[in-house]
């Protein structure tokens, strides 16, 4: 039971400890929750179907609630074998370090991320850029503990949902503990959005 587990001491910005908790179906579990989020955003079902779905979801919550754990014990964000470490909050993406020392990859916003008129919600773009630029700062400087100091986004064109998009990011400069990063999101040759951010390396024990 979650309440019987010894609490993590916390303190500082602790990197995730890899785990295999959740077993071989944890990735399938995360994918199923993502699909459910999409259905919740898209569904136009008869009243009785919605009622049945609500009943089922309430039963599922009852099934899972005894096992709620703190962030140090939950496998979410610690399954290194899964995309985005099994973190359901993050926009799904794949990335790689390029030969010229940058980070590039692809991302796909789902129906869940819809704002209006086929466009991705602006806040979801903030989530993506914070993830991508934070990853860039960490991978390219070797910093394991950092926090976002600011994030500025320029929205250039409508960002579509349910379409594979491309991103590219790099380090602009490093000044002591300050890491300045910038990047862009594109759809082929079309610039969709660009962003710059400052990440600050944390001191030992700093939250």
From TrEMBL:
Region (Disordered) residue ranges read 1-27
Q: Where is the Thioesterase domain?
A: 117-192
Top-rank taxon of the source lineage equals: Bacteria
Q: How does it sit in the membrane?
A: Peripheral membrane protein
Q: Name one GO biological process term.
A: fatty acid metabolic process
Q: Which UniProt keywords apply?
A: Apoptosis, Cell membrane, Cell projection, Cytoplasm, Fatty acid metabolism, Hydrolase, Lipid metabolism, Membrane, Transit peptide
EC identifiers of the protein = 3.1.2.2
Its family? Belongs to the THEM4/THEM5 thioesterase family.
What is the recorded name of this protein? Answer: Acyl-coenzyme A thioesterase THEM4
Organism listed in the record: Mycobacterium triplex
